[in-house]
Amino acid sequence: MAATGNLRAQVALLLKSDNGRVIVRPHLPLVLANKVANRKEHLGEASCITEMSVMMACWKQNDFSDAACAKEIAAFFTCTANAESERKARENQDGVAGQTGKLPAKQVNKLLQRFPNITHEI
Question: Distances in Å between the alpha carbon of 58 and those of 9, 53, 74, 113?
Answer without folding.
Answer: 68, 9, 13, 54
